[in-house]
Amino acid sequence: MNHFVYREKELYCEDIPVRRIAEKVGTPLYIYSHATLKRHFKAFSDAFKGVDSLICFSAKANTSLAVLRLFSNFGGGLDIVSGGELYRGLKAGFSPEKIVYSGVGKRIDEIDYALETDILMFNIESLEELDLINKRAGIIKKKARISIRVNPDVDPRTHPYISTGMKKNKFGINNEFAVKGYKTAMGLENVKIVGIDCHIGSQITEIKPFVEALHSLKLLIKNLEDYGININYLDMGGGLGITYNDEAPPQPAEYAGAIKKYLGRTKLKLILEPGRVIVGNAGVLVTKVLYRKSTDVKEFIIVDAGMNDLVRPTLYKAFHAIKPVVVSGEGEIVADIVGPICESGDFLALDRYVQRVHQGDLLAVMSAGAYGFVMSSNYCSRLRIPEVMVRDDKFYVVRKRQKYEDLTRDENIPSFL
Ligand code: LLP
To answer: Looking at residue 355, which CATH number applies to its domain?
Structure first.
């Protein structure tokens, strides 16, 4: 069931008109539907029923404490990529034994923090990182549980910026070096091999690349067994795509079915790191029309949300549907929907059919729950915008709008000035 639907020409989130929230909280703002978040998480985890599995939500997609708390309440784990995400995860209530840590550039302080917290495992992305983690674990007197993130050289056929499992990408370790890494890890005193990991990319809309990656990992696991190296966890990463426009990605059940089928009977515990598929279509960005402007060649709709609030359209040429919050029936125009920032790349949509709007009208930028707020910035000293969670007919401001003081809070002017 879709929880962003029109009732009597008004866009609702669950049982509240989006307009009412915007009037109370102001624009721009992000709105998340609790029911959708819950449904998506359940659909994904239910899809893996029957196999021993842990769903580690990928924090980077949406780090709102409220969103994280919801998933931790469901018994989920967390996939992190920084000390900051670990901090948030713990604050949200995730237990450390459900936290996995990926990322090519883990710093010493972050490694120490994760060791002290005793997280489930580090997904190692280079042999130098393996060496450092062993050393730090020795100093801290902890055993670091590790898996090696394998780069299986699979083409996920997605946007090049979010493809991660090909030879040319910086991520993971190729099969040959992975074996070397495991052999090295065997001899390291403060490291315990527990798993194997891969993450081949994001917004993947076919099953095939996942199966190819799994095939590659299975061969490697077999190979490792021959060396007496046994693995407990198989981490398949995230990457399942969603519908932004006309994509038809596999449903979680289909995705899980393919993985389960290909995996066969196994003692391995499966870890999944979904991000976008859980939160992407659970959120919208609501923005207000500031001005309209026509030129010989274009119609512009200038809105109060910019590329600093949602960078995906300009960064990846990503499509986000844009819907009127109140349907007027005035017909459509073709326009560029642009923000207030001084860059031509500051757009939410180009040459888009959209309802004819007027100053003050509200527009909803759909599918903005993943990589939306988390990628926002204070560029042009614009204030970070609020995040609201809707549950039934109530809404909760889960992050308030910044104030001007927040912009300069951490700054100092040296005394010589
Ligand atoms: N695990 C790892 C190790 C990852 O690097 C990622 C995403 C995920 C899991 C979750 O992937 P998902 O299920 O969300 O596809 N900012 C880009 C997406 C970057 C994805 C980075 N890694 C965007 O807005 O499309």
So the answer is: 2.40.37.10
